[in-house]
Amino acid sequence: MKKLLKIKRQNAPDGLPFWEDYEYEIQQESDTVATALFTLPVVWEKSCLQKKCGACAMVVNGKPVLACDTVLSHIKSDTVVIEPLRKFPVVKDLMVDRESMMRKLKELEVWLRQDAEPVEEEMAFEASKCLQCGLCLEICPNYYPDGTFGGMAGMAPMARLLAKAGEDDRKEIGRNYQKGIYEGCGKSLACRKICPAGMDMDHLLIKSNAIAVWKHFRKRKNGKK
Questions:
Q1: Strands, DSSP E only, in the chain?
Q2: pLDDT score for 119
Q3: Of the candidates 174, 36, 53, 55, which has an alpha carbon nearest to the alpha carbon of residue 110?
Q4: Which end of the chain has less neighbouring CB within 10 Å, N or C?
């Protein structure tokens, strides 16, 4: 079986994008987009190739995916359109600079200041699945590289902190969560079906909102700081 790979390329960050076509003969049923890219003179980011690191995130036939997790024989069309993620600046070809995502994590201060207290272990485990691949940001209607909203890529590490933080840490984390996550999320949950790690977005949002927002709101209403 042959597939026509239509790849959007770009020679440099300030270069003009252009399209190039490559014909790929599928050798095995398990051949993925990543398998095909290894045979082509195209720059792309890769690491584990086992759906564990998120490095090979890109857009295939209009859908944000991991190249290592996208089986070519499962794609019905004979033409496979491959593009870089669109919410991050292109470095070259399919490689993008996800620095804006990392910058938002710094702004959200996703670290503990005191010893952890694992009070919500199930929540912490679920949040730890995040690959920081950026696919959720690609499809999120509320995320912009220059905006304040950290997206689900920011929510996951904050949820992990909220699950483990002591009371004093939770106050500070909660304030950052409200500003960088809660106030920006439109609850469209477009990210729910995109996440390659299968994170339970609904569960994490509900638990995180309860800890960071509603619990704090109830305390203020009752006259507690």
A1: 2-9, 18-25, 57-60, 63-66, 79-83, 90-92, 95-96
A2: 63
A3: 174
A4: C
Which residue matches tokens 């690491």?
Answer: 47
User: Which residues contact residue 87 at a Cβ distance below 8 angstroms, ignoring those fewer than 6 apart?
Assistant: 134, 137, 138, 143, 144, 145
* Rounded distance between C-alpha atoms, residue 107 and residue 109, angstroms: 5
Which tokens sit at 3?
A: 């597939």
pLDDT tens digit sequence for 122-138: 888 999 999 999 999 99
Neighbours of 130 (CB within 10 A): 21
Structure tokens that stand for 64 in this block: 């944000």
Q: How far is CA 21 from CA 25, 102, 117, 124, in A?
A: 13, 33, 53, 44
| Distances, alpha carbon 203 to alpha carbons 8, 24, 123, in Å | 36, 41, 8
- Model's pTM, two decimal places? 0.88
What burial class does residue 134 get, using C-beta atoms within 10 Å of its C-beta: 0-12 exposed, 13-18 middle, 19+ buried? Answer: buried
The structure tokens listed for 54 are: 């998120």
